[in-house]
């Protein structure tokens, strides 16, 4: 460990805390030194310095020309774990979790805000049930019920021989085949529970550091309360308003994730138990066994009661951010998974009850589940859109994405993605078991998946065709924008460089980079278009399934010949496409498991999608910010308290979001010693537009007033970063657009062609060092403090 722990306070100490962006970076790259030393942290996330800077606090005279650089590397929180690549298959869970945080900013309407959160949590619950139902469809219906019940299908597959209905084995009865197959979806639910519990222990269940300022005593995080708007903060009377990201419980989602995990696990197990019980109970109602019929009714009633309890658990409580809630739910909630698993066991025993006359034919009873789930998701999305519009109308914001409908649009995308994956996988497995050379035609030995899933598979090619239209429009618009910007580029560089000879190739490249960077601003209407199309196509799939009747495996059976031909072709294409997509997922996952660079590329998805805590779906990838933000906050607070020095936290891209979130968590006395430098930052361009309640105009303006000094650098060629656009009465924060490239042609200072940097290498611009030095100059000079850590009154009131 460095001598920083025992160093005296130094009035000349200054520190630059570097935070990298998406995709990760090594400490060697960040510090421009092949040799680095870990100052604090572990293999997952740590702070590094150059060897010569390890004891910088003891020799402040060496750093009169600049701050001591140290790097916070957090890439292993997202892309470092090889198994994380396989979580691509749970992408809908991550997407629906984002919808929770896209709530429009508003004043009042507390009930509508709560309703918004409840609707998102219910949507997330339907996704868990849909995933489990899809697993039941494949394992119970297609394999155990249809294929094993058909001599033509089972005889062609030796691994199904012991389940074949034509044999005399113990497993030949349909109920026993279903009981055995139920172990597969039950194991899937158990795996999701295990992954969620493991990541919960590593992230949400990790107690954050107590908020002890310089000279202060630690407070109990379980009893510390933060104010509501307009009420003084109990932590610091000088603060009259604390934004959501400044609340002490924001990065501590221990209780909610545990509660949701119990409910979703129980919902999965109840879905499995319901699939097994429903088929057996339906047969028993037509049989002559009163005892079995009674048991079936009692078991189904118990499952319904369990489902009602799950709904109550999901709807009754949301996030608690006003305090660090360290408690967990007792009794009923914590026992839900165990009770539900026991019901699965009872259902398996009930289904295995001997029924010699039971014969499986057609599809497994319960195919209506998919129609009910699809309709419920559509109703919930419409309700979510209504709530979002009401919130947005109360406090409209010109820069918000899709007029406040960003959350419902993203939630619709999650449902559409889950539906397409469900329908495509079921259709592909059905085609594989069918053995037919024409996928989806239902001409083989089994009936195939429910007709709704066939329609959902048929939707895939249509959705891809619809995506081509906006892509072509954006491509044409980008080309036209590049041509329009060409004379602007030449005029701009001509005014900066005395002798500039126009170069059409160079001009086109610079103008094209600026035009392509503007594509990011078109994302809202593109998402809205895709979401609207998904909603319409999903409605069409439900209507088509209803019109087709109970004809599994055919998307338009009984309709006009032309429509049936088109539907069959789309269904076949969709089946093959989802099969190709599944192979692509597996291949990508295997490559990421072996290749660190590929793992880092996939990690970029998690860098953006898992910044937010798991507020709606517990099976989503974990929130890395619940580790990174406390790390940064604690480092800034402890270093300034120990040394009394000035600190600039320097964040690039996603690192700027982490830096801002960490500054929000600081006490006022510590913020007085901290400057914020952001570059290539998506704070307003992406987060402000899509998450207005947390990074909108009002929260960012509050941050600009709360932090002692802040500077934001941006380029016109950057597709991610942009200005933060604070209120006119707020501090001047933005500087840009920076010159990119630094020189149009060859100059004496730049004899070789300068690259177009776009989103990278902001430190290469001379403006970066200039603004960093200006921030340090604006920070108040360090003051001597007592060795016991008591802050001087001058700093506390400065």
UniProtKB/TrEMBL annotation:
Q: Could you list this entry's UniProt keywords, alphabetically sorted.
A: Membrane, Transmembrane, Transmembrane helix
Q: Which InterPro entries match?
A: AB_hydrolase_fold
Show the stretches that span the lipid bilayer: 115-135, 178-195, 262-283, 295-315, 336-353, 365-390, 402-426, 455-476, 525-549, 569-589
UniProt keyword Membrane, yes or no: yes
Query: Does the keyword Hydrolase belong to this entry?
Result: no
Q: Where is this region: Disordered?
A: 205-238, 778-798
Q: Composition bias, kind Basic and acidic residues: at what positions?
A: 785-798
- Would you tell me the protein name for this molecule? Integral membrane protein
């Amino acid at each position: 460990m460095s001598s920083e722990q025992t160093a005296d306070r130094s009035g000349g100490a200054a520190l630059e805390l570097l935070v990298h962006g998406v995709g990760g970076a090594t400490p060697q790259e960040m510090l421009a030194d092949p040799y680095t030393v870990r100052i604090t942290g572990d293999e997952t996330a740590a702070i590094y310095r150059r060897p010569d800077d390890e004891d910088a606090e003891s020799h402040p005279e060496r750093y009169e020309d600049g701050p001591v650089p140290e790097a916070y590397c957090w890439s292993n929180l997202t892309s470092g774990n090889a198994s994380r690549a396989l979580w691509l298959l749970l992408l809908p869970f991550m997407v629906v979790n984002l919808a929770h945080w896209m709530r429009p900013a508003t004043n009042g309407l507390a009930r509508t805000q709560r309703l918004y959160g409840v609707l998102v949590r219910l949507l997330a619950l339907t996704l868990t049930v849909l995933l489990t139902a899809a697993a039941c469809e494949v394992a119970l219906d297609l394999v155990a019920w249809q294929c094993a019940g058909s001599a033509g299908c089972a005889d062609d597959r030796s691994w199904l021989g012991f389940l074949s209905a034509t044999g005399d084995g113990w497993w030949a009865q349909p109920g026993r085949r279903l009981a055995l197959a139920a172990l597969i979806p039950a194991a899937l639910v158990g795996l999701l529970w295990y992954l969620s519990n493991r990541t919960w222990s590593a992230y949400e269940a990790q107690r954050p550091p107590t908020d002890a300022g310089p000279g202060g005593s630690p407070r109990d995080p379980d009893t510390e309360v933060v104010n509501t708007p307009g009420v003084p903060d109990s932590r610091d009377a000088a603060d009259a308003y604390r934004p959501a990201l400044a609340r002490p419980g924001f990065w501590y989602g221990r209780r909610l994730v545990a509660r949701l995990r119990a409910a979703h696990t129980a919902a999965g197990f109840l879905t499995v138990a319901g699939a097994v019980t429903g088929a057996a109970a339906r047969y028993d109602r037509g049989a002559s066994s009163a005892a079995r019929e009674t048991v079936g009714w009692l078991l189904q009633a118990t499952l319904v009661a369990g489902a009602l309890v799950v709904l109550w658990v999901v709807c009754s409580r949301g996030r608690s951010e006003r305090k660090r809630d360290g408690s967990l739910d007792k009794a009923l909630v914590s026992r839900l998974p165990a009770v539900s698993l026991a019901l699965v066991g009872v259902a398996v025993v009930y289904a295995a009850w001997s029924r010699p006359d039971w014969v499986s034919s057609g599809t497994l009873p319960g195919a209506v589940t998919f129609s009910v789930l699809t309709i419920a998701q559509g109703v919930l999305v419409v309700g979510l859109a209504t709530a979002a519009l009401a919130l947005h109308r109360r406090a409209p914001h010109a820069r918000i994405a899709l007029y406040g409908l960003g959350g419902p649009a993203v939630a619709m995308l999650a449902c559409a993605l889950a539906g397409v994956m469900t329908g495509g996988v079921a259709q592909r497995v059905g085609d594989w078991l069918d053995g037919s050379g024409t996928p989806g035609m239902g001409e083989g030995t089994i009936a195939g998946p429910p007709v709704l899933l066939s329609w959902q598979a048929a939707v895939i090619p249509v959705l891809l065709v619809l995506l081509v239209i906006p892509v072509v429009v954006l491509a044409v618009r980008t080309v036209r924008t590049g041509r329009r910007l060409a004379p602007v580029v030449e005029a701009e560089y001509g005014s900066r460089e005395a002798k500039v000879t126009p170069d059409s190739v160079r001009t086109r490249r610079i103008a094209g980079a600026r035009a392509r960077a503007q594509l990011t601003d078109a994302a809202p209407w593109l998402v809205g278009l895709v979401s609207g199309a998904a909603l319409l196509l999903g409605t069409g799939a439900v209507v088509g399934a209803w019109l087709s009747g109970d004809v599994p495996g055919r998307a338009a059976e009984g309709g006009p010949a032309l429509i049936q031909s088109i539907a069959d072709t789309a269904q076949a294409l969709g089946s093959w496409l989802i099969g190709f997509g599944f192979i692509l997922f597996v291949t990508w996952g295997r490559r990421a498991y072996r290749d660190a660079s590929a793992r880092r590329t996939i990690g970029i998805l998690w860098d953006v999608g898992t910044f937010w805590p798991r507020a709606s779906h517990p099976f989503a990838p974990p929130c890395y910010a619940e580790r990174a933000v406390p790390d940064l906050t604690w480092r800034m607070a402890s270093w300034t308290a120990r040394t009394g020095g000035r600190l600039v936290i320097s964040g690039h891209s996603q690192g700027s979001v982490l830096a801002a979130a960490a500054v929000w968590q600081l006490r006022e006395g510590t913020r007085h010693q901290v400057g914020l430098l952001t570059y290539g930052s998506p704070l307003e361009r992406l987060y402000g537009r899509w998450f207005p309640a947390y990074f909108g105009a009002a929260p960012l303006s509050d941050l600009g007033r709360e932090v002692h000094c802040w500077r934001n650098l941006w380029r016109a060629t950057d597709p991610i970063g942009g200005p933060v656009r604070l209120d006119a009465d707020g501090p001047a924060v933005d500087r840009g657009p920076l010159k990119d490239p630094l020189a149009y042609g060859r100059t004496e200072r730049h004899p070789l062609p300068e690259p177009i940097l776009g989103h990278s290498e902001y430190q290469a611009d001379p403006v970066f060092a200039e603004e960093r030095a200006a921030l340090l100059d604006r920070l108040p000079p360090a003051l001597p403090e007592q060795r016991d850590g008591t802050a001087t009154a001058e700093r506390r009131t400065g």
